[in-house]
């Protein structure tokens, strides 16, 4: 046994490329030309010492090598401690494997608890003898081992928002934190509208209630903070919630509270990362991303206002890596056929990767494959440390939830990718701003980035190829609708256009999947298709429509720096500075498409001015009211903006646009679910509704009546109980229309006493059974029938029941369905404020708004019918 003799690392080099030439462990020739050009940009004098630098290269182009070379150069040259962050453990293992076995770069992986870190790895990192590869959560926590890192490399920075923001996000789940959730809802009861309270305590919610979210006005939130804090403090002990609560509990004035049936979220709008020592103290932070975007999303995600972006190289903004053939089953087949299509695709390929949005979907798909195939099914846990077992499988399917990045299946490891959901809003704040404030433009780039990441899982080099199957109308729309597709680079646009065109007008699944077979065979037929895709790409490039930066994105980018400044000023309770930044933000966000987001900032301005008023500056009360009024003018989706103005309730139901916002939001959901690019699902549904309404079978009529209500944006339901109401349409918690449908087979049938008496009881049934209605809700009872006479004895009971002739009702339904067609034709995306304005105009012009419907049904009372003589 002898002494350990340490050899000195060579530092006789001037660039990362020169350093790498002496690396004899590497199994690659070195950085490719475009990678070297990106490193050269980094080494320029005005860049290398910048605090924050962003590098953009598309998925599969080798960002990892560039980051590791820069990190290794700084570690060896300057003896700096370098940390390389990945979104999850699976990526940590992947980067460690690639660095060690391909690039020949010295790294150590760090996952799990600090106390379980390998002592040798800890020593090597502390002495700056190796690069530490770890996950975001290892740096962004209350007790990070990496608290003195000199260089922080943030891989997949576009997907780090939740990992970073979680440090300052108290996410209270209805199912995981039952008592805390219920206790908070009860404490908030006196400041919640009755509707919202009922929604949150309802154990049997409607589907729309589960989707719903809202924001507790900050003025009320701060007013309740002293009561809420002890409740939270008690329940978070010895739970994971404790860590985030510790970060925000003394700064609730700088946080927002979002409410939903499934949970409550308390967090600052932008994570104040520069208050987190391990992140703030680093000499340099390098953000690596597949797309940095043009709307300032990186700044909002990271809480850093000035990030130096390196220029894109090698025309990656125009061309793809590898080749993808997109197929869209729902362009030809109904959703009911999706599983049949999926199982037939599996028979055509040995391995298949399926990406969905949540664990419930994973479980249902696992069951389907286990019940109907002999395929080996892999979960996220199965492939966390390595994908080897999946790759070795000759009949395998990997089903992963919310993993739109981080899975690298290059070469022939997997050539079939299934994406089953839209990677859209990931938390309540994003959902609120997108759906309630109609400011989807803010998150368009973020959602697009998730989609680009997802579709690139199986094409990691120029020679890779994969078929990508897209299920679901919302995801389909995000890829191929005219407004969305123009934001993708030319080659991807060409792939999408080509694939969608090939996916339409198929009568059989065999015909549809025949194209997939031709793609996998890679024969002469596909060579012609390949040539067409390239021609389409070149035509798009030559059309000179590239790189035209959206005016909206430019405004959002300029705004982002001030939004970051606002958050730090608010965190420090510097309300005057925060309000100054709000005014700058509002001045930047001009234009109709940004009206919803501008409204959000007017609302925040009102809150800040209100805080200043409470500190004794009385003139700020009127300033606060002015901001709130502007916020109210920006949206009709949120009625509590109005209620902040004069501290009094506003009777919204008396407004002449009675409930129109309620139906528009639900119509929007229906359009997305039915599909935007093609109208087949909608037209089938519309045809069926009209056929059912014209049927002489009463049960069929009831079905058509119920489905029409759903199509028009009402909560529509029916009951099968004896003497129970026929379909009822709920507009909101203030109005319900309940029906007695009677389609008589006899030609001159008179409405008998028993049917009128039955209808009289429906109002009481609704008040007793339907929880979401307020106690003083208006309930209108109608009878839709093909009869035009009533028995003498029945007439007296029909004074409070409205009569509608079936033929007139069918005519009105035709008009209403045509209005929905018009709404569909001008629809582009969820959360589009301009569409919502146009939708209101169309519904009013076509006279099918909720107010118009009330006028239509209330023309004649049942008692006014011709009586039986």
UniProtKB/TrEMBL annotation:
Molecular-function GO terms, alphabetical: ATP binding; DNA binding; helicase activity; hydrolase activity, acting on acid anhydrides, in phosphorus-containing anhydrides
Domain Helicase ATP-binding: 44-310
Biological processes per GO annotation: nucleobase-containing compound metabolic process
Name recorded for this polypeptide: Helicase ATP-binding domain-containing protein
């Amino acid at each position: 046994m002898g002494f350990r003799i340490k050899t000195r690392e060579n530092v006789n080099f001037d660039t990362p490329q020169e350093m790498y030439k002496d690396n004899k462990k590497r199994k690659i020739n070195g950085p490719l030309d475009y990678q070297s050009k990106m490193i050269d940009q980094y080494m320029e004098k005005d860049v290398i010492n910048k605090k924050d630098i962003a590098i953009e290269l598309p998925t599969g182009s080798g960002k990892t090598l560039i980051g590791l070379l820069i990190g290794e150069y700084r570690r060896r040259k300057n003896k700096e401690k370098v940390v390389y962050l990945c979104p999850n453990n699976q990526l940590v293992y992947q980067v460690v494997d690639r660095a060690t076995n391909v690039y020949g770069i010295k790294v150590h992986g760090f996952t799990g608890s600090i106390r379980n870190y390998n002592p040798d790895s800890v020593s090597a990192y502390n002495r700056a003898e190796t690069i530490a590869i770890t996950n975001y959560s290892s740096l962004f926590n209350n007790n990070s081992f990496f608290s003195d890192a000199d260089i922080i490399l943030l891989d997949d920075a576009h997907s780090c928002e939740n990992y970073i923001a979680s440090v300052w996000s108290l996410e209270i789940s209805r199912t995981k934190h039952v008592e805390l959730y219920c206790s908070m809802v009860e404490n908030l009861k006196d400041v919640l509208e009755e509707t919202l309270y009922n929604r949150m305590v309802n154990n049997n919610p409607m589907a729309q209630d589960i989707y719903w979210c809202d924001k507790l006005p900050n003025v009320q939130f701060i007013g309740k903070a002293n009561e809420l804090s002890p409740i939270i403090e008690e329940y978070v002990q010895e739970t994971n919630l404790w860590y985030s609560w510790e970060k925000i509990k003394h700064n609730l004035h700088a946080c927002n509270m979002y409410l939903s049936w499934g949970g409550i979220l308390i967090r600052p709008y932008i994570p104040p990362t520069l208050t987190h020592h391990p992140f703030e103290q680093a000499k340099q932070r390098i953000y690596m991303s597949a797309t940095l975007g043009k709307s300032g999303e990186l700044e909002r995600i990271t809480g850093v206002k000035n990030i130096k972006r390196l220029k894109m190289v090698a025309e990656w903004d125009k061309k793809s890596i590898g080749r993808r053939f997109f197929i869209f089953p729902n362009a030809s087949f109904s959703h009911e056929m999706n599983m049949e299509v999926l199982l037939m695709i599996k028979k055509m390929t040995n391995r298949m990767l399926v990406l969905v949005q949540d664990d419930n979907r994973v479980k249902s798909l696992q069951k389907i494959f286990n019940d109907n195939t002999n395929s080996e099914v892999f979960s996220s846990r199965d492939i966390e440390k390595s994908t080897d077992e999946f790759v070795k499988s000759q009949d395998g399917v990997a089903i992963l939830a919310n993993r739109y990045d981080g899975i690298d299946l290059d070469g022939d490891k997997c050539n079939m990718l299934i994406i089953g959901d839209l990677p859209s809003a990931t938390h309540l704040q994003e959902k609120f701003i997108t759906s309630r404030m109609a400011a989807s433009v803010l998150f368009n780039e973020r959602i697009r980035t998730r989609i680009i990441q997802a579709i690139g899982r199986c094409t990691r080099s120029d020679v890779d190829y994969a078929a990508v199957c897209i299920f679901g109308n919302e995801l389909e729309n995000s890829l191929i609708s005219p407004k969305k597709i123009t934001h993708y680079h030319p080659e991807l646009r060409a792939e999408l256009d080509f694939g969608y065109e090939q996916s339409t007008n198929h009568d059989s699944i065999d015909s549809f999947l025949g194209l997939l077979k031709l793609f996998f065979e890679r024969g002469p037929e596909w060579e012609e298709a390949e040539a067409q895709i390239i021609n389409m790409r070149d035509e798009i490039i030559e059309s000179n429509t590239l790189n035209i930066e959206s005016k909206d994105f430019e405004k959002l980018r300029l705004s982002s720096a001030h939004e970051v400044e606002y958050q730090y000023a608010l965190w420090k309770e510097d309300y005057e500075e925060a309000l100054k930044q709000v005014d700058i933000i509002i001045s930047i966000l001009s234009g109709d498409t940004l009206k919803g987001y501008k409204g959000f900032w007017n609302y925040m301005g009102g809150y800040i001015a209100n805080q200043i008023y409470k500190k004794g500056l009385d003139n700020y009360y009127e300033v606060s009211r002015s901001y709130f009024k502007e916020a109210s003018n920006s949206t009709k989706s949120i009625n509590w903006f109005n209620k902040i103005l004069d501290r009094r309730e506003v009777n919204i139901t008396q407004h002449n646009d009675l409930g129109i916002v309620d139906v528009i939001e639900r119509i929007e959901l229906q359009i997305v679910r039915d599909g935007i690019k093609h109208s087949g699902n909608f037209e089938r549904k519309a045809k069926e509704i009209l056929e059912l309404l014209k049927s002489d079978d009463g049960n069929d009529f009831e079905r058509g009546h119920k489905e029409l209500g759903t199509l028009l944006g009402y909560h529509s339901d029916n009951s099968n109980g004896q003497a129970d109401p026929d379909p009822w349409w709920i507009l909101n918690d203030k109005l319900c229309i309940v029906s007695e449908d009677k389609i008589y087979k006899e030609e001159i049938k008179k409405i008998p006493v028993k049917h009128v008496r039955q209808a009289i009881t429906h109002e009481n049934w609704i008040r007793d059974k339907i929880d979401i209605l307020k106690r003083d809700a208006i309930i209108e009872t109608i009878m839709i029938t093909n009869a035009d006479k009533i028995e003498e004895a029945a007439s007296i009971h029909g004074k409070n029941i409205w009569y509608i002739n079936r033929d007139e009702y069918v005519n009105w339904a035709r008009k209403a369905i045509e209005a929905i067609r018009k709404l569909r034709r001008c629809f582009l995306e969820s959360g589009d404020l301009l569409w919502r304005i146009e939708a209101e105009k169309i519904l009013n012009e076509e006279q099918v708004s909720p107010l118009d419907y009330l006028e239509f049904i209330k023309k004649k009372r049942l008692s006014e019918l011709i009586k039986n003589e």
